[in-house]
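pinned: reference chain
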Amino acid sequence: MAKSGIRILPAALIAIAVALLGWQLWRAKAPPPAGPAEPAQTADPAPAGEDAAGAPAATQAERKIQPSRGPAYRNPQLADLKQRADGGDSRAACELGVDLLRCVDLTPAEQVLANAEANSRTQMPAEQRAYHERTVNRARQLLAECRNAPEDAWHQGNHYLRQAALAGEPEAMYRYARGDSVLADYSRMATPEFDRWRAEAGNMLQLSFEAGYLPSVFDLMVAYSDNSSPIAGLVANDPTKARAMRLLVGRLAGKNADPPEARYAALEPAAAALAAQWQRDYFPTVKPPLQRLPRIMPGGFATLFSEDNAGPPCSQP
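pinned: its structure tokens
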């Protein structure tokens, strides 16, 4: 492992431990209800496909989310995205939501800068040195940009990410379902936005999958298998679908999946048929074998640690 990464690793491990602790506390204190929770009474609509009572979806005009109110943005790029998003541009709403949410928790960027001087004195190969310098520059840029973010960046970020998700943007549906807003630091569990997310997340993840968004395959594979994460706890376990997801990953990667557990062997024919159907219906343009698997990190981490050739958020065709 690169030495520059060694100094960042403890903070990352602590963040993961805090997240897991928060998840366990939430499960202990507030187990999921037997049925979907009633959405909070706000101007925002119910998930695509249903209204709050489960009736057929309303028209797009009736479901339109009202612009998020607040002071004018000081950041010109964010101001432009907000104007486009408020005008109905779902791709702009997705990008704006991600950009705002990356300013909610700046701890990773602050940790990078706190370790910058010590890392600068560490002997390391030229390639690692260049990576370290790029990360430091990105941290400075992120902190500078977030100084011009609105004070209610979390509320507005959640608002616009959800707006894009309800409009059918695959990456927005995935990010919203995964909890990029309400699970940013586990401090939002007593908010109406969190309750609304619990009611919508499972269906939103399924819609992202049906839109052919590859990262959702892995989250659903876990969700159908166990309750080891917040989103997994909101999706009913299903061994046939869990196995079908594993077989689908193998089909897309051009590799054979490991044999099923003996107790699930009888499910193999149904799981194999389901995997073939999903590949045909949702991923017809993916040509196996996949050369690389997509990695979708939360906004702040992506800004700091993404590869140089990574595209901007919500840039999928």
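why pinned: Confidence is low (pLDDT under 50) at residues 1-43, 45-62. The chain has 14 helices and no strands.
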